[in-house]
Amino acid sequence: MNIILLGPPGAGKGTQASRLVEERGMVQLSTGDMLRAAVKAGTPVGLQAKAVMEAGELVSDAIVSALIGERLDSAGAHGGAIFDGYPRTQAQAEALDLLLDERGEKLDYVVELTVDEEALVDRITGRFTCATCGEGYHDRYKLPKVQDTCDVCGSHEFKRRPDDNAETVRTRMAEYRAKTAPILPFYETRGLVRRVDGMAPIAEVGAQIDAILDGAA
Ligand code: ADP
Ligand code: ADP
Ligand code: ZN
Question: Structure pTM?
């Protein structure tokens, strides 16, 4: 089972992907996470990507598709892959078809998380993650069960992304509208798209996705 989680910044892709990893043993392939790791490590890719990411624009198709190809080979995605934040352009969608084809794999679903743009700024500006394990949280919608303590690993250190500010979010949303949303018809003609109400509470979004993956929706 290979799926794409598609939706604008803050739609809940990472939140849902990490739950699917835990519950189904799938592998999460997040180009955003890969790029942030490259920036942190100061690799050539990271050096190229840093300013682009801070501006909220898209990193080049060649870079992200190469990252995905490498990760597909190293991750051993036999329980299935969740593409989170990739593809984001038509060229990336075509590259992904090739990458999967070369490995004898195919896409099963493209799950589109639909959300109100107004809610996204709020989601993004309230987002933070565990600095140790990466678990995602929100100032109002998903606080740690014990204050200042990660539910998953017990760490007390949290961090916020430099691009998670109100101004950059506007650029990121514009990029989504201009370059990413237009790839939906490419998958619609293949009957792969399933829509999920991303405005529902986290657990309900999860239940809707489960129903799709279990063939009940
Ligand atoms: P994406 O990966 O699509 O950018 P995230 O999964 O990181 O989005 O979610 C963005 C923020 O919104 C996070 O702080 C997360 O805890 C919160 N969030 C995710 N899904 C929901 C939801 N259904 N309702 C309310 N808040 C949510
Ligand atoms: P979000 O889901 O909150 O928008 P991501 O973590 O997926 O954030 O991406 C953060 C940034 O990394 C993007 O704004 C963009 O600059 C870059 N990026 C991530 N994935 C891609 C991609 N597939 N193509 C181009 N740029 C990407
Ligand atoms: Zn943690």
Answer: 0.95
Q: How far apart are the CA of 132 and the centre of ligand 3, in A?
A: 5
What residue spans of the chain are helical by DSSP H? Answer: 13-24, 31-41, 44-55, 61-75, 90-102, 117-125, 166-175, 184-188, 202-213
CA distance 56 to 58: 7
Pocket of ligand 1 contains residue 134 by CB under 6 Å: no
Residue 150's closest CA among 134, 127, 126? 134
Alpha-carbon distance of 196 to 3, in angstroms, equals 14
Structure tokens at 210: 């489960």
> Rounded to whole angstroms, what are the CA distances from 78 to 6, 24, 44, 81?
21, 11, 30, 8
Residue with tokens 């004898």: 104
How does pLDDT run across 37-83, given as a tens digit for each residue? 999 999 999 999 999 999 999 999 999 999 999 999 887 766 799 99
- Between the alpha carbon of residue 33 and those of residues 39, 71, 94, 208, the distances in Å are 10, 12, 21, 25
- Separation in Å, CA 105 to CA 74, 93, 108: 15, 14, 10
Give the whole-angstrom CA distance, residue 96 versus residue 171: 25
- Structure token digits, residue 133: 């394990």
Query: Is 24 an active-site residue?
Result: no
Give the neighbor-by-neighbor strand order of the sheet with 136-138.
136-138, 127-130, 158-159
